[in-house]
Amino acid sequence: MNGRVVALSDYRGTPRLGSAVEAYFSDKQLSANTRRGYSQALSAITEELGWDLPLDQLDSRKLLDIFQKCWGEGKPSTWNTRFTAVQSFVSYCQRNAWLQHDPMALVDRRRSPRDQTKAVPYEDLEALLSRRDIHLREKTLWRLLYETAARAGEVLALNVDDLDLSRKRAVIIGKGGHREYVFWASGAARLLSRYLAGRRRGPVFLTHRQPNVIPARGDECPHTGRGRLSYERSSTLFKQSSGGWTLHQLRHSSLTHLGEQGASTTLLQAKSRHQDPRTLAIYTKPGNEAIAQLTSEFDKQRWSR
Q1: Three-state secondary structure along the chain?
Q2: Angle, CA 173 vertex, CA 82 and CA 77 arms, to 5°
Q3: Which of 120, 144, 80 is nearest to 244 (CA)?
Q4: Four-point Cα dihedral 294, 282, 128, 233, nearest 10
Q5: What is the signed CA dihedral for 265, 267, 273, 274, rounded to 10 degrees?
Q6: Can you name the residues that pair with 90 across neighbouring β-strands?
Q7: CA dihedral defined by 274, 120, 124, 258, rounded to 10 degrees?
Q8: CA 203 to centroid of chain Cα atoms
Q9: b/e map of 111-144 (b: 16 or more CB within 10 Å)?
Q10: Which pLDDT tens digit goes with each residue over 82-141?
């Protein structure tokens, strides 16, 4: 048994819930975005059940009640995200022999309706990015998300010194806390050069105004004093400007368009950084515009005979 288990064994060999959560975040190598989401889920559990709850008193009925209270009225995706976080914590506790049972036995994932229209037609994206009323910051962010096919949280976490502007690439912290490269093309390169305007340190994407509170360490620009742009704000602006699209659709659209142009599954997996190639099935399937073009071409051939 390791030293952490002994230190936490303050109740008949079983740690308290709050101490176990602290140990989990101390031991797990999580990206900033994943850590934020997992923290929201586990904080809700701790607040409902109490920091000092002995871990062996964590049971399925209590967790199910919390899930229904906190996330029962939300989207299936929100429920499933919280499910993943709590399940990861439970598995960690079981590996440390703090739990001998499965407190998630009564909590199941929820089925999400499959959206067959996630990929946005390239022409529509270009029309959005060409609008004069869109701020340079948003154009740069959206173009970078599309050309890298990266997750929004990964790109928003970038600092200027993570960028290799001459080689059109950057080091990001991906899922699992791994350092990985993302690559962009000439469109994002031109916009980045204009948007950075000589900045060499601090977050890449900044708020437009000075923050009301001091930003966390690493989230303040030393040149302007402004803070890092949040996911919530960038998501809201994109939905408002696009008429309801989500930031994730930029990643989905990028991979779909590459698949339609003949990119191999191997290259798509490298671009998207998916661990399981089966996940790429939704991207290698041609989108609506490609199917419409095929139908049109077939129609022309048929009536020209």
Answers
A1: CCHHHHHHCCECCECEHHHHHHHHHHHCCCCHHHHHHHHHHHHHHHHHHCCCCEHHHCCHHHHHHHHHHHHCCCCHHHHHHHHHHHHHHHHHHHHCCCCCCCCCCCCCCCCCCCCCCCCCCHHHHHHHHCCCCCCHHHHHHHHHHHHHCCCHHHHHCCEHHHEEHHHCEEEEECHHHCEEEEECCHHHHHHHHHHHCCCCCCECCECCCCCCCCCCCCCECCCCCCEECCHHHHHHHHHHHHCCCCCHHHHHHHHHHHHHCCCCHHHHHHHHCCCCHHHHHHHHCCCHHHHHHHHHHHHHHHHCC
A2: 20
A3: 120
A4: 170
A5: 10
A6: none
A7: 40
A8: 18
A9: eeeeeeebbbbbeebeebbeeeebeebbbbbbbb
A10: 999 999 999 999 999 899 899 999 999 988 765 555 888 889 999 999 999 999 999 999
Q: Which residues pair with 182 in a beta bridge?
A: 170
pTM for the model: 0.60
- Amino acid 198 reads G
Residue-wise pLDDT tens digits, 280-305: 776 666 666 666 666 766 665 555 55
Q: Which of 195, 199, 203, 191 is nearest to 143 (CA)?
A: 191
Burial class for 214, CB neighbours closer than 10 Å (0-12, 13-18, 19+): exposed
CA atoms within 13 A on the CB side of 136: 12
Return the structure tokens found at 123.
């022409």
177: nearest Cα among 5, 33, 61: 33
Tokens, residue 237: 């602006």
**Tokens found for residue 142:** 């959206």
